[in-house]
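User: Predict the complex.
Assistant: Input components as received:
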Amino acid sequence: MISNYLGRETWLHRMPAGAKLAALAILSVVILPVDDWRALVAALAGVVLLYASLGKEAFKRLAMIRSFAVLLAIIAALHLLAGTWQEAVAAVARLVMMILLADLVSMTTTMQAMMAALTPVLTLLRPFGLNPRKLSLAVSLAIRFIPVLSANWEARSEAWRARTGRRPSFRLLGPFIADTFRIADHVAEALDARGVARSRRGGREWG
Amino acid sequence: MPDTVSPYLRFDNVSLGRGARTVFDGFSASLGERRVGLIGNNGSGKSTLLRLAAGLLLPDAGEVFVEGLETKTHRGELPGNVGFLFQNPDHQILFPTVGEEIAFGLTEKGMTDAEANAAARELLAANGCEGWEKRAVHELSEGQRQLVCLLSVIAPEPSVLLLDEPFSSLDLPTRLDLSDRLRALPQAVVMASHDFEFLSAFDRLLWLDDGRVREDGRPATVIAAYEASIRGLKTARRA
């Protein structure tokens, strides 16, 4: 299963997961009201420097932003239509920065550390009858699956291009969703085999 | 059928349907040998039998006992007693790094993260994979990933290992390396495979055909019968 985790340890790997998640949350909130495009571009440059500080392999990961190209272009176009180019630059820079920062955290944090950081926070939900460890596993798995799903979409698009010579179409959506369910089934079975969620009785269809 | 003293795995009149298809209808078998192989065509029920033994599937009728534990009533206790190795390592591996993948089964057993990580480190070192704990799983080769899966499964020290065609996607050198490791395991092993060379050293083979035991006994006899039947079918088709 593909993941975006960086195998070679960097200084950011050694930072506690809780600090990284808190910093990500705080930065996201701080960035939101800023609308000066120069400040945002400068901050984005700072994030790029952060990538550079993690070595060549991390720096190459910046290219992943290309998969957001269409979305970013649409956002820029909407801003250009409704407002000024400064607003368009600011909106795109803000979004790119948030994506890159989130990716930095998942690139340098193990799932175990993520779960350990989330569990105390999620313990607050215990009065509602929720198991914090299972919940933190679920949240971490959801984050963990973003690269898996995007790799799966890429693979399908590639197959489509190889056989049609055309750009991927919405018709890929059906098989992509079916595939996603299949992956979810495998994960459920893997968790089951390792003893997670064995409290309930009864089996699950495996296919 | 060879005599089995104190079986670790017992199927008692088990029936199971998957969708519209009936896989097993009143299947009974009792396994007590250290090394048991399952052979048969794809779709003959090998994987399903292993999944029943791991409690991943529960019988519609009848009972399955693992180390005396009935799988429907003792589902929660099974993962501590049986380890299940999937055919495709990517279907098992959940975590991005090797260390946490191996530690996961241990924390599920009640260890703290720190204890589990230390145990994972030790297990890796003992298996010639010193310092692997921080490596990203997706950067490993297919064979290395399968090895990580095996170590994750044996880490909680189950007494029975269920292996679902663990060699199917491996190249020859990795297959031989994994075979050596499997041979050395102290656990009882039930393994579905098409690797007759490896299975020939087993204590007992079951040939499954359409959810029934077609032949049961020493590997040489069972393999010969299976191969003869396949060849017979081919000749019959050609004639």
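The interface with chain A takes residues 18-19, 51, 54-58, 72, 75-76, 78-80, 84, 86, 90-97, 99-100, 103-105, 108-109, 113, 117, 134-139, 152 of chain B (CB under 8 Å).
Let me know if you want any component modeled separately.
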